[in-house]
Every structure is written in C-alpha cells, then in structure tokens.
Amino acid sequence: MMEIKQRAKQASGSNDSTLKTLAKQLVQVRQQRVKLHSAKAQLGAMGMHATVTASQIAAVSAIGSVTDSMKVANQQMNIKETTKIMAQFQKETESLKVKEEMMDDVLMDAFDSEGIEEEADQVTNQVLAELGIELDSQMVGLNAPMSKPQGEQLSSEEQAALEDVLPDLKARLNAL
C-alpha cells in the first residue's frame, strides 16, 4: 500500500502501468486473504463436525453396551422367583405393621392409666382453687374444689412448680 502511494506521487497520471500492476496485486492479495479466512473457517467447522460425530459414535457405543448388559440381566432374572420374593416381602411388611400396632396398643395401655388423668384433674382443680376461681358457673358438670384437698401433701418440687406458675396465671386472669 505504501509502495502504491509513493508510485502514485511519482506518476504523472493514472496511465502508469507499474501503478496499475501494483494495484492489481493489492486487490489479489486482499482476495486471497478473504479466501484464506473462509477456508480456515470451513476447516474449523469440519473439525467441529468431526468431533460431534465422534461424540455421537461414542454415545451409541455406550448405549449398545448398556443394552447388552440389560439383556444379560433380563436373561438372568427369574420373573416367577422375583414375584414370589415380592409377595413374601409384602406379607412380612403387613405382619410387621400388625405387630407394631399391637405393641403401640400395649404401650398405650401400660402408660395411659385413668389414675393419671384423675390426678392431673385434681392438681388442675387445686391450682384453680388456690387462685379463687370458681369453674362451676362456667363449666357444667365439673366440681372445682374451693380449698386444698386434705388427703395429699405436695412435695417441695411440686410446691415450687406451682409457685412459679401462680404469678403468670394471676396475670392472665387479670387480663381477662
């Protein structure tokens, strides 16, 4: 390009044959460069296409191997035996559920006694009686004691627990 500019300065007109030859060579070089870039891009595309094809061939090969393995596994599997095992498993599972329910019932009977409910009701009524609450007018059928039961004495732990709860219960009552 520099040569063409220098030659154009030296030439007196556009009829200089050397100037025309240099211009033609420049145009040809540019065309060759475009063709080279195009060829390079096509080669790159062909390379990527080859890579994709190789990947697809590898995937098909892997699927073929898995298919062969599955055929072998299916041939080895005894459907009748598998069905028998599954039926036995289901039977044992149901048996286990029944045993679990029976154990739950036994444990519930062992730990849920009526005495606990009655004792809990007595403690609740005692706490409410100490606060001076009469539930007779609010709940039909319940008898709230107006004083402490005479038969039982509270342990120091129970007494401490009641004293801790008492201020909170009084605050709740006052809030009503």
Overview of the structural elements:
The chain has 176 residues and is mostly helical. It has helices at 2-10, 17-76, 79-111, 114-130, 156-175. α1 runs antiparallel to α2 (17-76). The longest helix has 60 residues, at 17-76. It is elongated and about 135 Å long. The model has no long low-confidence stretch (mean pLDDT 81).
Notable traits:
mainly alpha; 5 helices; elongated; 79% helix; single chain; 176 residues
Instruction: Give the fraction of residues assigned to helices.
Output: over 70%
Number of helices: 5
Based on CA atoms alone, the radius of gyration comes out at 50 Å
Structural class: mainly alpha
Distance between the termini: 101 Å
User: Outline, from the CA principal axes?
Assistant: elongated
Biggest pleated-sheet summary: none
Give me the count of strands: 0
Which strand-content bin applies to the residues? under 5%
- Helix and strand run: HHHHH
Mean pLDDT: 81
- Low-pLDDT segments, ≥5 res: none
